[in-house]
Amino acid sequence: MSEFYVGSEVGQLKRVLLHRPERALNHLTPSNCHELLFDDVLAVERAGEEHDMFARTLTDQGVHVYLLHDLLVETLAVPEAKQWLLDTQLNHYRLGYQFASDVRAYLADIDHNTLADILLGGLSYIDLPVQSSSMMQAMHDKTDFVIEPLPNHLFTRDTSCWVYGGVSLNPMAKPARQRETNHLRAIYRWHPEFAGSAFINYLGDEVRDYDNAMIEGGDVLVIGRGAVLIGMSERTTPQGVEQLARSLLFSGQAKEVIAVQLPKNRSCMHLDTVMTHMDVHTFSVYPTVMRPDLPCWRLTRKGEDGLNVDAQSCYLTAIEKALDVGPLNIITTGGDSYAAEREQWNDANNVLTVKPGVVIGYEGNTYTNEKYDKAGIKVLSVPGDQLGRGRGGARCMSCPLERDGI
Question: Where is the active site (predicted)?
Fold first, then answer.
């Protein structure tokens, strides 16, 4: 296979990473779902069926689908990777010295498939067949978690994002998601599929404290031709944008980064919930949020170690210049103002482009899908009644590993 490279948002998609929701959703309850960043509990079996249909749609389009669980199992077969993950995900500071040691000893002896289930889906005290001399077990209810589930792994776009010839292992904003990155860190370092490939780690692959420099892949759009569009949202900070931009620009992988400021609220937690790229000059936009007067900056390389940061009058104009195209074709969310708000909430603007002018989106967004169709965009619709409850659509649930440029 060719090397991992993502040259755009709309070129032919060739390889993609997904995560089928499994054990973590069984641990999602009305009392913990908000802490775990979900608005509601999901019907687990139905969510899995919907995800299978999503994966099958991609496969039918000739896209090679990798599943996170499978990659993690295969990574755990590498002794160094397994030891690193156990030491990192169950360190002494998280569980206390004695309890961490006891839990790690138990997990080190189980099969890799079960271990992957637990690392991704969580482990409660009642399911831990170990009696430790630590105080921890006596101080917790049986339904408390030794290892918290990671249901947001469903949204593989955020944890790591491939930009041209490299990957950004992202410092996640919310504690409920921060351990996710270590799974990708281990996979990209040790899994045989990745270990032999040459690619850049833009933010490095070591565990470190990024402080206020947070960035998530849902805010990063690889719009092509050396340009990257990044939203500064409730999950991505200017400090995070600057860190990634410096690495992109000084590695020579990008020529410019366009940063746009978004409102800090859950309905537009990432740029791709209000704007996605559908064809070379066509974008889907939720106009209530993506107003032409949003503050916007263009970042380019300055000398040996500096950045030029230039305010732009309009992010749309900045995109046109970066892509060297005429006026952009903007397709807004469908229906009246009420329907448009509902459909944006249900990810009508969060579509995954498979190839120019062909996208995958939720079938329930009928008004917006009809507008796409009339504009010449083919929508491959999939059910999302359950998956959408996590506030993410087809783009959120996919991490492209290989895609053509434009």
Answer: 396
∠ CA 228-234-239, nearest 5°, is: 55
Residues 142 and 158 in one domain: no
Same-domain check for residues 65 and 87: no
Residue span of the structural domain in which 93 resides: 71-147
Residues 325 and 197 in one domain: yes
Task: Report the C-alpha gap between 342 and 349 in whole angstroms.
Answer: 11
pLDDT in tens, the chain (406 residues): 469 999 999 999 999 999 998 888 888 888 888 887 787 788 888 999 999 999 999 999 999 999 999 999 999 999 999 999 999 999 999 999 999 999 999 999 999 999 999 999 999 999 999 999 999 988 999 999 999 999 999 999 999 999 999 999 999 999 889 999 999 999 999 999 999 898 999 998 888 889 999 999 999 999 999 999 999 998 999 999 999 999 999 999 999 999 999 988 766 789 999 999 999 999 999 999 999 999 999 999 999 889 999 999 999 999 999 999 989 999 999 999 999 999 998 899 999 999 999 999 999 999 999 999 999 999 999 999 888 887 899 999 999 999 999 9
CATH number at residue 92: 1.10.3930.10
Cβ-contact 345, 267 below 8 angstroms: yes
Q: Which residues pair with 232 in a beta bridge?
A: 261
Contact 215, 193 (CB under 8 A): no
Token reading at 302: 């300055």
Q: Which two tokens stand for residue 118?
A: 């637990």
Same structural domain, 97 and 207: no
Residue keyed to tokens 């900070």: 237
Domain total in the chain: 2
Instruction: For the full predicted model, state whether its pTM sits above 0.90.
Output: yes
DSSP category for residue 268: G
What span, in angstroms and rounded, lies between the C-alpha atoms of 199 and 182? 18
Q: Which residues are catalytic?
A: 396
Are 129 and 162 in the same domain? no
